């Protein structure tokens, strides 16, 4: 049996199991070593060897434009190094970027059997279920929780990051996969037991999202769930309005409503939204005044908003002063102290800090040319996704996968406005791994397979 499967297949299975579960990173001298640092080169070598020995073959899915755009942005990164004050961070950034490109090419182009695709899917669901259960367990028993931002919480005693190193990263991953989990739970499965099992996994991830206490992620999750249902309304609501799923939905709603600090953090999220609206569109209680607790909540929220917008301003200033080639790939952190010293109003108490916006980071480091070529990758990603949807929309499984990927990748793009998720290796590997495997499955297997 084992001889029927390629080494490439087993290495991709290892990616599906290990990458979501193992965030650990150690340094061998200046070189960071993590699961993806080991697995992606092994996978690349295995594919090259097995392709030459004709143990694997490529499908006919055309991804030349993807590779062209990846190559263009890589060329811009090389050129931007001419502006860098430190070459090593730039080279590390470029090597990581290339690893994503190789991974995406492999998982998108290598052909697998129907059975192998199914094993990938079942393994992924089992793996993320384990990660989600660990997230809830870590909160219940206060195991390795992130304490940053706890000052603004009344009841919660920490923020869950589960198998990732930061609650914001975990929140990004949760929102990326929630649309697919919801669609399969409600629409794909016909048997009640499988619907409830998948809905339980969906519920686990909703609860994990609450336990991250990441306000922007809460809002994006709510919007993602609504959009997911509206993109396939007839089938979705017909299946949802059954006794067992209505009961499961009500149970999940009651649980979420009664979780620690849900109501306070939700109000805080609303304050964040209001802070970006014109003053004449904002209002408080009917009498125009806030209660003492609401005033305290709003005060904490305003401080967080000011801090985040100051970080964005820093990235914007770097971009404005280096609009063509940027200040060099990987060099945002290297130049941060220089800029907050030069502009004291940008200082937020740290000598080195993330810009908390992937697009500003790209613009600051590679200039307008880099930002345009970078965004072109994601614009084409959605064009490609839409094309696959048009071609395969009559197959229910493929339709659900592509709708889920569309909404999930949209949440990923949105959360990169407030975080640097694209530059988090564990998370970005999962983004391209899942995207590539879905594109591969949708193209390779015949409809209704």
Distance between the termini: 22 Å
Order of SSEs: HEEHHHHHHHHHHHHHHH
Write down the overall mean pLDDT. Answer: 91
Main sheet specs: 2 strands, antiparallel
Side by side, the strands of the main sheet go: 1-2
Structural class given helices, strands, pairing?
mainly alpha
**Beta fraction of the residues?**
under 5%
User: How many E-type strands?
Assistant: 2
* Gyration radius, in Å: 23 Å
The amount of helix comes to 55-70%
Characterization of the model:
This protein has 16 helices and two strands. With 449 residues, the chain is an all-alpha fold. The protein has three domains: 57 residues; 206 residues, no CATH class; 161 residues, no CATH class. Strands 1-2 form a two-stranded antiparallel sheet. Strand 1 and strand 2 form a beta hairpin. Helix 14 packs antiparallel against helix 15. It is globular and about 65 Å long. The mean pLDDT is 91.
């Amino acid at each position: 049996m084992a001889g029927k499967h390629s080494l490439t297949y087993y290495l991709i299975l290892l990616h599906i199991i290990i990458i979501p579960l193992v965030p650990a990173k150690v340094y061998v001298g200046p070189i960071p070593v993590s699961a993806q640092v080991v697995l992606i080169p092994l996978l690349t070598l295995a594919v090259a060897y097995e392709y030459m020995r004709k143990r694997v073959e490529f499908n006919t899915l055309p991804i030349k434009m993807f590779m062209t755009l990846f190559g263009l942005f890589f060329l811009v990164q090389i050129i931007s190094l001419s502006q860098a004050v430190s070459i090593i961070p730039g080279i590390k950034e470029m090597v990581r970027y290339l690893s994503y490109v190789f991974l995406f090419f492999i998982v998108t182009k290598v052909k697998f059997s129907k059975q192998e695709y199914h094993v990938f899917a079942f393994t992924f669901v089992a793996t993320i279920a384990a990660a989600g259960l660990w997230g809830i367990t870590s909160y219940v028993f206060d195991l390795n929780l992130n304490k940053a931002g706890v000052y603004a919480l009344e009841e919660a005693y920490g923020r869950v990051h589960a198998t990732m190193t930061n609650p914001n990263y975990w929140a990004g991953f949760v929102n990326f996969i929630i649309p697919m989990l919801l669609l399969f739970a409600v629409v794909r499965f016909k048997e009640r037991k499988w619907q409830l099992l998948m809905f339980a996994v969906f519920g686990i991830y909703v609860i994990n999202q609450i336990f991250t206490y990441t306000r922007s992620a809460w809002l994006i999750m709510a919007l993602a769930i609504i959009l997911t249902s509206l993109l396939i309304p007839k089938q979705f609501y017909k299946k949802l309005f059954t006794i067992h799923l209505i009961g499961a939905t009500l149970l999940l709603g009651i649980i979420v409503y009664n979780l620690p600090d849900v109501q306070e953090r939700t109000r805080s999220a609303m304050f964040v939204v209001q802070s970006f609206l014109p003053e004449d569109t904002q209002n408080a209680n009917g009498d125009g005044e806030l209660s003492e607790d609401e005033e305290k909540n709003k005060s904490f929220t305003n401080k967080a908003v000011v801090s985040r917008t100051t970080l964005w301003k820093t990235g914007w200033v770097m971009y404005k002063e280096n609009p063509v080639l940027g200040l060099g790939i990987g060099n945002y952190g290297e130049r941060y102290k220089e800029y907050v010293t030069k502009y004291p109003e940008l200082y937020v108490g740290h000598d080195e800090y993330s810009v908390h916006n992937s697009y500003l980071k790209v613009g600051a480091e590679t200039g307008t040319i880099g930002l345009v070529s970078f965004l072109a990758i994601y614009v084409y990603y959605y064009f490609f996704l839409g094309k696959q949807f048009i071609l395969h929309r009559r197959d229910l499984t493929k339709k659900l996968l592509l709708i889920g990927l569309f909404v999930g990748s949209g949440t990923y793009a949105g959360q990169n406005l407030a975080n640097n998720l694209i530059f988090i290796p564990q998370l970005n590997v999962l983004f391209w791994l899942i995207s590539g495997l879905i594109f591969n499955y949708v193209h390779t297997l015949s409809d209704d397979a």
